Amino acid sequence: xxxxxVKNLEEGDVGKDIDTVGFLAYPVLQAADILIYKADTVxxxxxxxxxxxxxxxxxxxxxTLYEPVFPEPQAMLTEEAKLPGIDxxxxxxxxNNAIYLSDDEETVNSKVLQMKTDPQRVRRTDPGNxxxxxxxxxxxxxxxxxxxxxxxxxxxxxxxxxxxxxKILAQNLNRFLSPVREKRREIExxxxxxxxIFEEGTEKARAVxxxxxxxxxxxxxxxxx
Length: 225
Ligand code: SF4
Hints:
This protein has eight helices and two strands; from the N terminus they run ααβαβααααα. It is mainly α. Residues 117-118, 121, 128, 130, 133, 135-136, 151, 155, 160, 162, 165-166 line the site of iron/sulfur cluster.
């Protein structure tokens, strides 16, 4: 697992304080967050698969050493399980390369225009390759199949410019985000109601966690101490 973590390190991690117990133990913390609620399915992106595998291993180890308390959770991936940040690296808040559900239309337009494209396509007249272009990765999710296929052909034949291609994407992303923004505005108007829902959810989760911890202590015979 440590090898997997090191393999997943990206350029942006260099120089960060990674030789700490906090960094090493973080996957265990994630595993605890899953196992304490006995989740059997976890919706994740492709980057998180090693964490789910480690979680399964921890569950197996505990169940074998003590008593079968934890289910072994399975990952739930969507059809497009990986979406890079606008600079091509892993999408991350710390890299400042993410598109947020809360971004307004102007911000989305500006972020899409900053996206890296096929590095081999230097001039508008150069044919491009959508297979190595981040913009196209997003088109795969946010653009209808027919337009996707048109862009693919036009890109390979230098019949479309990257700016035009990005404008189509920005439009589609904004169309996708529009109802999310609307819902967000509604929630903000009635924030007390949602705070109450969060509090009720926290109480429910706390009760489940407390029950699981009871089973864990019993299995480990920690009552005796
Ligand atoms: S035309 Fe679109 S898919 Fe092709 S390289 Fe430019 S941005 Fe990428």
